[in-house]
Amino acid sequence: MINVAVLGYGTVGSGVVEVIEKNKDMVNKKSAQELEVKYILDLRDFPGDPYENKVIHDFNTILQDDSVTIICETMGGVGAAYQFTKQALELGKSVCTSNKELVAKHGPELLQIAREHNCNYLFEASVGGGIPIIRPLNYSLTAEKIEAVNGILNGTTNYILSKMEKEGADFDTVLKEAQDKGYAERNPEADVEGYDACRKIAILSSLMFGKNVDSEKVPTEGITKITAADFEYANAAEYTIKLLGRSRAIDDDTAEVMVAPFMLPKDHPLAMVYGVFNAVFVTGNMLGDSMYYGRGAGKLPTASAVVSDVIDCARHQGKVIMCFWDKEEVKLVDTRESVRSFFIRAKAGAKGAVEAAFPGGRELHLADRKEDFGYFTQPMKESEFLAKYEALGEQMLGRIRLV
Amino acid sequence: MINVAVLGYGTVGSGVVEVIEKNKDMVNKKSAQELEVKYILDLRDFPGDPYENKVIHDFNTILQDDSVTIICETMGGVGAAYQFTKQALELGKSVCTSNKELVAKHGPELLQIAREHNCNYLFEASVGGGIPIIRPLNYSLTAEKIEAVNGILNGTTNYILSKMEKEGADFDTVLKEAQDKGYAERNPEADVEGYDACRKIAILSSLMFGKNVDSEKVPTEGITKITAADFEYANAAEYTIKLLGRSRAIDDDTAEVMVAPFMLPKDHPLAMVYGVFNAVFVTGNMLGDSMYYGRGAGKLPTASAVVSDVIDCARHQGKVIMCFWDKEEVKLVDTRESVRSFFIRAKAGAKGAVEAAFPGGRELHLADRKEDFGYFTQPMKESEFLAKYEALGEQMLGRIRLV
């Protein structure tokens, strides 16, 4: 029998307890032994909860109990979660986490501590919620050189963009509705500004290279400037708009990594990923394109991924599971040096100026919009585009990169 | 160093050699040791081939060489491939295969022999070509009770159906073109009659239950009766037509498994899987829906999956990798007892008869088609539907199940 401790009895933590309980037969069969949640660490008490007698408040109880060999860290944050994870790994207790912030920030260090103490630090739930993506990258696509990863990595922003597209609503309206429904946080910054997607693409890029991509160095742009009008033009041109985390290998040590809204053709597999669903599109040098799709968040999907890690730890007690992610930094190229096309939305009066600044592009006029027009530029260096775009000043109403 | 032997130097076998050679750095890093192809078994010689000096004709050379611990079986068929696989496993040599026919027919027996001899029988490439699906089912979705698997599992038929949809062409025309391009075999029966998809859904269902689904008991219907006219109606009703392998758990021991063309809504994630791409849509009791998408066939994608198995064997020498697939049979329910809706295409004159036989359905008339009409029935038992449909005789031009 293996005793498990759950740190943090919030949404994901309570989901972990629920999955282990509800799918007990399957979990025990796949673990080849019985799993039991022995402790739930939380600052709060949970009177009336079926597991209230497992709730404790002192992490040392878990550390000092040698019968606990697997810990689920579902607290979030990089303070106590970091300390607890480190202490646990140093004692040879494996840790399974859904905490992308901590994985993005201290992943390579915690993996090394785990290796040194013959235990595991697993984080399937940190990217894509319930979508198996960490394991496919680590254990399935092992014969591949991964050339690129493109992902819809945040459910809240994908829900907002999907609603804007389908209902013609504006960002603020849909955000408010999403907040009321609990799909978006009261403080939505981490989602709508792209920070959450940034952490996730940094984790995926790190696994792609086996070296570290520092999330703080990844250029990140959110979706707050996307408007209903942008979707009207996108739709007319057979495009959609998605917040993408993108990573492209330049060579074995160098990558272009970024998070930004992109226009992509409606027949691209990522274009059909709607609502709270996420998907990761992986391009390998032998396999070509593959995609992993599913619920990117939510209590039970995320918990299911954490428990799959617990099962993996149970089956590999005392053994280190392969994960290549060294501290060495991947060099990030300046995304402004990349060449791509842009969509521009501009005031009707700016037609001549836009054509002069971006020759050879394609204009798009919509019958019901007299006040503005759309324009797709030829491929050009991003820095050059941005300089010209900004020089055109208030005539410009918006710009979106094309994939 | 690990010596590898490749059985069969055809499309996939030569791809395996190419992947190991081209991605040598990655393959050796992930294997944590050097992999070397020592023998290539084939009846033919390959003068001028860069690996011609590795080509041998006698399997005993491989069996008797203790330095060969991993074998790639890329011969196909259930004759020699079965004998060779068995002999290799009995000597403790792991076998990695792309041979779905053999896996579907003798999977549980070969897995048991592997277990008894402390080696592995792996078959990631047997379903979905390069798409990681066997490993996600075996190692990722371990905390899930899988409720259903729906897959587009055959690239040839999906290519044909996609072409028919996009070009309005008929089955025979597109098949001939596909044969000319090498996308379809001269003898296309295994693909177009659904037998290939049937083996694959049997393998996936077996892994879903951990028990055996006998592919020979799976009701299988191909795509030869689908017409350009069916696609016209489907398109007008916002549907598409796909050949699906479907498996649905009734309880822990009982399933409904079938292969047939289905109409599915255009916004279903499987509907956007076009051309030679394949996808597997998995529904779990915690995770909900997830999907795995990629190239379902082709030399390098399939070879990449075989090599990922080789790497797994290399990392687990002398250890048995978890795979639940017992000989015990899953009970299959009679698909004719299932309740679903059907699409009917019927001669224009049969309007009254169709409405009388299938009351409460939805008619569909197309302006440019006077000779026939479409009809969507209410959900009804399949056996009841078929009896009534057949009773209407030559008035009926086609029928397709709805998902």
UniProtKB/TrEMBL annotation, chains A, B:
GO terms (BP aspect): methionine biosynthetic process; threonine biosynthetic process
Binding-site residues, NADP(+): 7-14
GO molecular function: homoserine dehydrogenase activity; NADP binding
Record-linked InterPro entries: Asp/hSer_DH_NAD-bd (IPR005106), HDH (IPR016204), HDH_cat (IPR001342), HDH_CS (IPR019811), NAD(P)-bd_dom_sf (IPR036291)
Record's keyword annotation contains Translocase: no
Main EC class the enzyme belongs to: oxidoreductase
Sites where the protein binds L-homoserine: 185
Nucleotide-binding listed as a keyword: no
Residue ranges of domain Homoserine dehydrogenase catalytic in the record: 132-311
Pfam families registered for this protein in UniProt: Homoserine_dh, NAD_binding_3
Family membership: Belongs to the homoserine dehydrogenase family.
Protein name (database record): Homoserine dehydrogenase
